[in-house]
Write a structure and sequence with these properties.
Elements lengths: L4 E6 L4 E3 L8 E8 L10 E5 L5 H6 L4 E3 L7 E4 L5 E5 L3 E7 L4 H12 L4 E15 L5 E16 L33 E3 L7 H7 L2
Parallel strand pairs: 4-10, 5-10
Antiparallel strand pairs: 1-9, 1-11, 2-3, 3-8, 5-6, 7-8, 9-10
Length: about 200
């Protein structure tokens, strides 16, 4: 059975710069930042391990750059070498050569104006690990993932406040974040994500 597709958003600046070969320019950003706790995702928080993308990058898994994760907004691909991915001490960085298409021109203009301030990545979990934070929240660590795409996005994915619950304890009003977009450096998750065996087992108790 195919693993569930999950989406995460990182609230960090998207950069636009000129390309030496001409064209519309290069759009870049961090789709993921390592070892940083997400917002409350419905009774748990999440972080990305620095080795989470190693297998995908080493295996040359085909990855796309799609605006808002939309097939109609294809911006680049690793197989055409119009999308480049790298890992550094901060996280997973992407660079995409913007195409001279309606999507490429739109995202160039939006980035130049500063309208786009989020990047995102879609993935399937290969391995995760559960623990707890110092505050007693369940902590999910993404240890290894199959990367599917990276994306500059107009707005962060909504929080998964109904996707999971903290086991053995109720989520209080104080635990639940306000209905707002993440601040700089915070991450959000798509509401259809995070269906792990451990979580399902705990919810069935």
């Amino acid at each position: 059975m195919e693993r569930e597709l999950e989406i995460r958003t990182e609230a960090r600046a998207v950069e636009l710069r000129a390309s030496e070969s001409g064209g519309l320019g290069i759009l870049s950003g961090y789709a993921a930042v390592f070892n940083r706790h997400s917002q409350n995702l419905g009774g748990f928080v999440e972080q990305v391990d620095p080795a989470a993308f190693n297998k995908s990058l080493a295996d040359g898994v085909p990855v796309m750059a799609r605006g808002n994760h939309d097939d109609a907004m294809l911006l680049g691909t690793t197989w055409a070498e119009t999308l480049r991915l790298s890992v550094d001490g901060t996280g997973l960085r992407y660079e995409v050569d913007l195409p001279d298409t309606s999507a490429g021109r739109d995202f160039r203009e939006l980035a130049a104006r500063g309208d786009i301030k989020w990047s995102s990545f879609a993935f399937r979990t290969i391995e995760d690990e559960w623990g707890q934070t110092e505050q007693g929240f369940d902590l999910r660590t993404l240890k290894a993932v199959q990367l599917v795409d990276v994306a500059p996005v107009n707005s962060p994915a909504p929080l998964a406040t109904s996707a999971a619950r903290r086991p053995f304890a109720a989520v209080t009003a104080a635990d639940t974040p306000p209905d707002s977009t993440p601040e700089e450096g915070q991450r959000a998750t798509h509401p259809t994500t995070v269906a792990t065996t451990r979580r399902r087992a705990l919810l069935s108790l």
